[in-house]
Amino acid sequence: MFTRKPLIFAALLALGSSAAFAQGPNLGKPIDPAELAAWDISILPDGTGLPAGSGTSAQGAPIYAQKCAMCHGPEGKGGANAAVVGGAPIKDMESVKTIANFWPYATTLFDYIRRAMPWQQPRSLTNDEVYALTAYILALNKLTGENDTMDAKTLPKVKMPNRDGFIIRFPDKI
Ligand code: HEC
Asked: Which residues line ligand 1 (CB under 6 A)?
């Protein structure tokens, strides 16, 4: 083993002085703003980041039936996966947390559905479809009216029941 060390050292020296190394590490090509936009999809509680588009509960119902009900049950009542409607009031750590009894911001619903659902095909929905599904789930929970349109202006205004149930550590960041 000992005799190999000078060889490794020599190899490192050669690498260090090579032209490629002198130019610095290869970090790839600069990212294109359009490529970046495809990944920059976070939505803040106040609605910052919400895209153009809109949808109503009536538009969301058939999309839900086709793409979501097989896991979340008919009309969001739960099935193989979590119910997206209802939920008993939270009493302790063991209580089941749901959109209606726990989530503080309606904008999170848009963010979550857009980035993660349907489970087997995330990022496959259009923004209009996500707004419609958000409207549908909010209306099923009676947090919005049946005919309310959800868009970048209306969605942040929906007040979730547990809105004030959190201690905000950095209020100025919201
Ligand atoms: C193949 C099954 C599957 C399909 C289809 C699916 N989901 Fe989900 N969904 C999940 C799983 C798994 C989770 C995360 C674990 C959990 O909460 O059960 C989840 C979580 C969620 C949550 C968060 C629930 C919570 O209270 O934490 C929402 C909202 C949601 N899905 C909406 C949708 C919508 C809208 C669709 C249709 C576009 C959809 N899902 C389709 C499996 C699925």
From this structure: 67-68, 70-72, 81-82, 84, 98-99, 109, 112-113, 117-120, 133
Buried b (16+ CB within 10 A) or exposed e, 97-135: ebbbbbbbbbbbbbbebbeebbeeeeeebebbbbbbbbb
d(CA 71, CA 120): 11
How far is residue 42's CA from residue 158's CA, in Å, rounded to a whole number?
Answer: 18
Measured in Å, residue 117 CA sits from the centre of ligand 1 at 6
**Could you give the percent of the chain with pLDDT greater than 70?**
87
Atom 17 of ligand 1, residue of closest alpha carbon: 82
Closest to 155 measured CA to CA, from 56, 75, 62:
56
pLDDT in tens, 33-87: 999 988 999 999 999 999 999 999 999 999 999 999 999 999 999 999 999 999 9
C-alpha span between 41 and 125 (Å, rounded): 13
